[in-house]
Amino acid sequence: MQKILLNNINSPSDLRLLKQNDLPQLAKELRDFIINIVATKEGHLGASLGVVELTIALHYIFNTPEDQLIWDVGHQAYGHKILTERKDIFHTNRQINGISGFPKREESIYDAFGVGHSSTSISAALGMAIASQLKGDLEKQHIAVIGDASIASGMAFEGLNHAGVTDANLLVILNDNAIGIDPSVGALKQYLTNVKKGIQRKNNIIEALNFDYSGPIDGHDLPKVLSELERLKSVKGPKFLHVITTKGKGLQQAEEDQVTYHAPGKFDKISGERIKKEKSLYTKYQDVFGETIVELASKNDKIVGITPAMLTGSSLKLMLEKYPKRTFDVGIAEQHAVTLAAGMVTQGLIPFCNIYSTFLQRAYDQVIHDVALQNLPVIFCLDRSGLVGEDGATHHGVFDLAFLRCIPNLIVFAPRNEIELRNILYTAQLGLKNPIAIRYPRGTGSIIEWKQPFLKIEIGKGICLKEGNKTAILTIGTIAKNVSDALELIDNSSNFSHYDLRFVKPLDEKLVHTIFKKYSTIFTVEDGTINGGFGSVILEFASENNYQNKIKTLGIPDKFIEHGSIFRLQLKLGLNANSLAENFKIYS
pLDDT tens digits, the chain, 588 residues: what are they? Predict the structure, then answer.
């Protein structure tokens, strides 16, 4: 019986005791280990399967953690985690109180830099390399592994541009598999395709930036990868290795359907077939957006859709299928997406710019300088707002209300359900004079028949959901459902009123004055940060108008929230229905 090599590999030092001809067997075992765990625990699959050989080679050739290895984004770092002292706890990946799905400095000395958003690896590795130079540590290696989708981002180019005029000991490895989450797009992607086909002079772009270029090589050919990494260790200055891999390598379904198997959910570890979940009666918010924008675009030819590399995740793929010339995937380029939308507005188009909440953080200046300052009515659709679950702190969309509400001219709206989302999308394309940010969560809603006739929403108008006589609860967005459920658990619920303000900006001041005059105790509940968020709006209103009511703000505390299911996180933060009910009873 063949010995299982992985059983005795707990760290890179163990790995380096193996003979090179044992490494292909280890690669197969590592793939099987990843497949077996992710099949039942879920997570990001295809990216990690694609870099198994590269991962083994990097830790075999380089003296990690002394040599510093940075994985861009981190979707592909599962093999890295397993080989770096986390094999026995890898089954806790992305689970509450378990290890993170992304590299995280506080989790392991082998995680040289925390990641989660793309295109940061080159800048970080360059910073480390320059620091090593300044400290006189000239032999230390600094390696950034970046994908072909991530390297097309502006920040990656900024890092390359700087590195090319240094003599820093930096190795950039391009993991080229022609796909990010969706297929890669843009002129650079076409250039890389031509390089692989031998059509393009391969060193044109990279060597022009003063990098020592090598490749492309087969990233699954372990002897070749090992040999090239060993050679590059002695090459001075910035160097660039172009590696060709197959996302999902080793699992047929993952190779054939790379978009779905980026994060496939649970699947059969033998056949690779996905395990079908019981079909929900409810629709995902992303699909409410996707179906609604197609419906609106069919009646308004000025509507266009823009996404920075999230066609599938945002459901703009539905519009791409129907209106390909009016749908723009600009790659991982959030800043460009925002200013592109601004330019389109000046020419009479109506752009729906769909960006995940945490990704909009990367385009904050563009929102202020290029959109709001000029009062251009771009429609921002912020998917994945609030708590998003297992992706954790890098992806929770909890800061958007706070960082958007301080921007002049910008309308900020949060629908409490699918019908509200549908109606605000309809309202936004009727001719708003201001830009608007519409933030909605990941996951399904709570209404089955959401495709109702369109109704125009009055900008800045809140509504009363439940009338009571003692305490008022003010909510924004879909957290209203938890509050409604909480009130059903309270015996004296007639004491409580529930208002959905809907707009953080402009605030329905007439309604809020009425609330402050009628109720002695006021709660605010939100799924965003308390600091500077919706609760702060109400506290500021009270201060400005000299109200002395008791105000209690509930939401996300001033700390980064870990990974875990949304249900478990809400329970931990006191935002589930039972916890809210107890809170209301205590403070009312």
Answer: 577 899 999 999 999 999 999 999 999 999 999 999 998 888 888 889 999 999 999 999 999 999 999 999 989 999 999 999 999 999 999 999 999 999 999 999 999 999 999 999 999 999 999 999 999 998 999 999 999 889 989 999 999 999 999 999 999 999 998 766 777 777 887 887 777 777 665 557 888 889 999 989 999 999 999 999 999 999 999 999 999 999 888 788 888 888 888 878 888 788 788 888 888 889 999 999 999 999 999 999 999 999 999 999 999 999 999 999 999 999 999 999 999 999 999 999 999 999 999 999 999 999 999 999 999 999 999 999 999 999 999 999 999 999 999 999 999 999 999 999 999 999 999 999 999 999 999 999 999 999 999 999 999 999 999 999 899 999 999 999 999 999 999 988 889 999 999 999 999 999 999 999 999 999 999 999 999 999 999 999 999 999 999 999 999 999 999 999 999 999 999 999 999 999 998 866
405 among known catalytic residues: no
Contacts of 122 (CB under 8 A, 6+ apart): 72, 144, 146, 151, 156, 159, 160, 163, 170, 172
**Length of the chain, in residues:** 588
Catalytic residue among 42, 53, 334, 526: 334
Q: pTM value?
A: 0.93
Residues sharing a CB contact under 8 Å with residue 260, sequence separation 6 or more, in sequence order = 274
The backbone torsions φ and ψ at residue 523, rounded to the nearest 5 degrees and listed phi first, read: -105, 145
Q: Indicate which residue of 86, 202, 247, 422 is catalytic.
A: 247
Tokens of 356: 């995940």
In the numeric block, the tokens 């007639």 are attached to: 494
> Given 362, 384, 405, 442, which residue is catalytic?
362
Q: Looking at the DSSP assignment, which residues form a beta bridge with residue 179?
A: 183
Alpha carbon of 476 to those of 250, 378, 479, 480, 554: distances in Å? 46, 22, 7, 7, 12
362 catalytic per annotation = yes
